Amino acid sequence: MDLILRGIINYVSKKSGLKLERYRESYLRRRLELRMRCLGIDDLSTYFRYLKTNDAEINELLNVIAINVTEFMRDITPFEFFMKNILPELSMRRKTLRFWSAGCANGEEAYSIAIAVLETLPECNFSVYATDIDEDSLEKAKRGIYSREQLKNLSGELVEKYFERVGDQFRVRDFVRRHVRFKRHDLTSEEPVTKFLDTIFCRNVMIYFTEEQKEKVIRDFYEALNSGGYLIIGKSESIPKGNFECVSLTEKVYRKI
After folding, report:
1. Of the ranges 57-66, 152-161, 173-182, 239-248, which one carries the lowest mean pLDDT score?
2. Sign of the alpha-carbon torsion through 211, 215, 221, 226
3. What are the φ/ψ torsions at residue 85 (nearest 5 degrees)?
4. Packing angle between helix 25-39 and helix 44-53, nearest 10 degrees?
5. HSE (CB half, 13 Å, CA atoms) of 182?
6. Extended strands (E) in the chain
7. Are 198 and 98 in contact, with CB atoms under 8 Å apart?
8. 3-class SS at 175?
9. Do domains 3-65 and 77-256 have the same CATH topology?
10. How is domain 3-65 classified at the CATH fold level?
11. CA distances, 245 to each of 48, 205, 230 (Å)
12. DSSP labels for 198-249?
């Protein structure tokens, strides 16, 4: 890592409290270059000077590093597997269930988990912990207002049941929202947001991490899950062999041994 890039990463890490140096260098460089193009800045030295004289730029850069593009029940088949195979099995173990959407972006995944549980186990007592490092995204998630495009994977019946219209947008209904708890959290440097979890969703997040970072996160997930609990990751991701057994390679579902 060259000195200027390292200086930027160290500076932003110190100011924000996030350990950005654990991200892959190639990924950080691409995100920095994207932000620089938005500002019309051509080189890292100029951007570093701009960064140090504009405090608001730190949050802007963090928003670019933490990619938050998603939709309800994205790649819908893992959610179908969750509803058909995982939830019925979990409901036979305990009356109260706990889930974690790690890297929840604007909240679509967290609310999707809640809707899946409500559809499958309507009488279930459950909580969804939803975390992200991007505070702006968390504020959007708490508001729970989305476009029609973000709901494209949901049937008209589900949209009608779980959302209310607000102009040309849709707000998650209160009886869904009360199950979801949003909190700022950095997977790469903090302890798990909670423990005794039944399922963790962390999809399309670890692809941006270094191997060291992934090992830390997987270790945390293992510690946070109940025995027999499930981890669902993105279809382009993988985890090392160890204390998880693969339940579905196609849907990237793993179970704590």
Report:
1. 57-66
2. positive
3. -110, -40
4. 70
5. 23
6. 96-102, 125-132, 145-146, 163-166, 169-172, 180-184, 197-202, 225-233, 244-248, 253-256
7. yes
8. helix
9. no
10. Chemotaxis Receptor Methyltransferase Cher; domain 1 (1.10.155)
11. 45, 20, 10
12. EEEEE-SSGGGB-HHHHHHHHHHHHHHEEEEEEEEE-TT----SSSEEEEET
The alpha carbon of residue 113 and the mean position of all alpha carbons in its chain are separated, in whole angstroms, by 12
pLDDT tens by residue, 92-115: 999 999 999 999 989 999 999 999
Exactly one of 35, 132, 177, 220 is catalytic; name it. Answer: 132
Q: Are 217 and 188 in contact (CB under 8 A)?
A: yes
Domain ranges for the chain: 3-65, 77-256
CB atoms inside a 10 Å sphere around CB 249: 10
Non-local (6+) Cβ contacts of 176 within 8 A are 111, 114, 115, 118, 162
pLDDT of residue 62: 79
* Higher-scoring residue by pLDDT: 135, 1: 135
Q: Is 184 a catalytic residue?
A: no
Q: What's phi and psi for 11, nearest 5 deg?
A: -65, -50
Other C-beta atoms lying within 10 Å of the C-beta of residue 96:
10
What is the CATH superfamily name and number for domain 77-256?
Answer: Vaccinia Virus protein VP39 (3.40.50.150)
Is 93 an annotated catalytic residue?
no
pTM (2 d.p.): 0.77
Q: How many residues does the chain have?
A: 257
Catalytic residue among 22, 31, 98, 177: 31
Give the rounded distance of the alpha carbon of 84 from its chain centre.
22
